[in-house]
């Protein structure tokens, strides 16, 4: 620790950060105990669908991910302390100031170095997860060379996109007056919408190859489904997900006419055409019920609140001094805000998870109504098995962390929809 004055604000941040970490570790321990207690047998409703060996693999995979997750939580707390009351941000500020750059470019350099250092500090945990845990359970297909290439591309993108973005935001913070936060929010919203629109065609192809879905039963089923649901997309694509992992998935991306439907090649191997159609119908359900637009609206509204709060906090001297920042500045305020905000929003996780699970129920109901509901259930069971997702998560852990309902609850809901 440095000679940072321990103000009321300091103690509030330390209290909430410690509480968030303690809750995370407590829930992880509950998850460990619960999964271990149910490891020895397959739940009755899945006994004829999933083998004991597959069930135990899912339990072991879940447990294996908990340990580095716990280390990551403690590590994040320590990094917060080092950056703030430990004087890390002030040290970084002194270093960037030594270059004698104009104020805004000094701030941009500060932001770039902060994020680069953050990526490097998280690298050991990420590599352990990829090359130890994922490899141990047969999911990792990533080579060291590909891993390094991905990391270099990510850093380059951060510079190409992040430097102009940081320059604009810092310019507004320093030169747009008391209402800078409103202009900053408008710019951020436009930038976010542009990135969502541009991601499918400009960024995603830098990391993966996308091939049009081949003619055949699968494509015919999907096109018929899209026609029935009145959904227009910019194409059906297969992504070489197997190049990095054997996990299967499918997703929508883009906005407006740039919307794409993307299937991992691993998913197409796992599922029958009728099952893939049902999974896609579930995703269409999200669009039918406006979940994507609602989430985007919530995100934009939340960012408005965030910008307004930052606009006020950066005028308060205690915001800096209580967290070890010796020289108040726009770039220091921005980084402090990003460091501290998760400490307080952590408590919102259960609420966000709840609404996300409700969206999943609605999307499943839509899929049952517009495709083969039984095929959706069998597809989900296959995906749980192939991805080694535990069928027996701890209820508290799941309620706090999981955006999707637990397998038994979700299958029960699908079967109820079939009988309604």
| Structural shape | globular
- Alpha-carbon distance between the two ends: 62 Å
Number of strands: 4
| Low-confidence regions | none
Question: Into which percentage range does the β-strand content fall?
Answer: under 5%
Tell me about this structure:
- By secondary structure, this protein is mainly alpha-helical.
- The protein has a domain at 8-205 and 294-348.
- It is 71% helix and 4% strand.
- It is built from 16 helices and four strands.
- It has a four-stranded mixed β-sheet with strand order 1-2-4-3.
- A hairpin with a 6-residue loop joins strand 3 (250-253) and strand 4.
- The N and C termini lie far apart (62 Å).
Summary, kept brief:
The chain is mainly α and 420 residues long. Helix content is 71%, strand content 4%. It has a four-stranded mixed β-sheet.
Describe the structure using short key phrases.
single chain, 420 residues, mainly alpha, 4-stranded mixed sheet, 16 helices, 71% helix, 4% strand
SSE diagram, text form:
Blueprint: H1 8-37, H2 52-83, H3 88-97, H4 103-136, H5 144-175, H6 180-203, E1 210-212, H7 217-229, E2 236-239, E3 250-253, E4 260-264, H8 265-270, H9 273-288, H10 291-313, H11 317-321, H12 330-345, H13 349-370, H14 373-386, H15 395-401, H16 407-419
Parallel strand pairs: 2-4
Antiparallel strand pairs: 1-2, 3-4
Helix pairs in contact: 1-2, 1-15, 2-4, 3-4, 4-5, 4-12, 5-6, 6-10, 7-9, 9-13, 9-14, 13-16, 14-16
């Amino acid at each position: 620790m440095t000679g940072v004055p321990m103000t009321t604000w300091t103690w509030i941040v330390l209290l909430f950060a410690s509480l968030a970490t303690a809750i995370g570790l407590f829930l992880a321990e509950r998850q460990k105990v619960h999964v271990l207690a149910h490891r020895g047998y397959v739940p009755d409703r899945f006994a004829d669908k999933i083998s004991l060996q597959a069930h135990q693999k899912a339990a072991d995979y879940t447990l294996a991910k908990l340990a580095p997750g716990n280390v990551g939580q403690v590590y994040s707390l320590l990094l917060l302390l080092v950056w703030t009351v430990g004087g890390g941000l002030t040290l970084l500020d002194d270093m960037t100031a030594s270059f004698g750059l104009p104020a805004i470019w000094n701030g941009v350099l500060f932001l770039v170095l902060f994020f680069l250092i953050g990526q490097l500090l998280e690298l050991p945990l990420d590599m352990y997860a990829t090359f130890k845990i994922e490899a141990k359970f047969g999911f990792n297909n990533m080579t060291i060379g590909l891993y390094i290439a991905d990391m270099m591309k990510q850093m380059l993108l951060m510079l190409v996109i992040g430097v102009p973005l940081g320059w604009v935001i810092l310019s507004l913070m320093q030169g747009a007056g008391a209402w800078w936060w409103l202009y900053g929010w408008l710019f951020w919203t436009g930038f976010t919408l542009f990135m969502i629109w541009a991601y499918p065609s400009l960024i995603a192809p830098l990391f993966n190859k996308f091939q049009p879905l081949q003619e055949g039963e699968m494509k015919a089923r999907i096109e018929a489904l899209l026609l029935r649901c009145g959904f227009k997309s910019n194409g059906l694509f297969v992504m070489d997900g197997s190049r990095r992992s054997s996990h299967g998935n499918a997703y929508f991306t883009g906005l407006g006419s740039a919307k794409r439907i993307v299937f991992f090649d691993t998913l197409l191997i796992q599922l029958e055409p009728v099952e893939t159609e049902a999974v896609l119908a579930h995703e269409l359900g999200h669009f039918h019920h406006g979940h994507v637009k609602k989430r985007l609206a919530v995100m934009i509204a939340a960012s408005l609140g965030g910008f307004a709060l930052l606009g006020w906090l950066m005028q308060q001297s205690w915001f800096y001094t209580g967290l070890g920042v010796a020289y108040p500045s726009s770039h220091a305020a921005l980084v402090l805000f990003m460091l501290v905000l998760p400490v307080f929003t952590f408590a919102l996780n259960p609420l966000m998870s709840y609404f996300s699970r409700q969206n999943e129920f609605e999307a499943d109901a839509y899929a049952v109504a517009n495709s083969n509901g039984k095929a959706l259930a069998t597809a989900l069971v296959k995906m749980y098995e192939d991805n080694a997702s535990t069928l027996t998560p701890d209820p508290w852990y799941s309620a706090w962390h999981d955006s999707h309902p637990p397998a038994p609850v979700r299958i029960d809901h699908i079967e109820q929809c079939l009988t309604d």
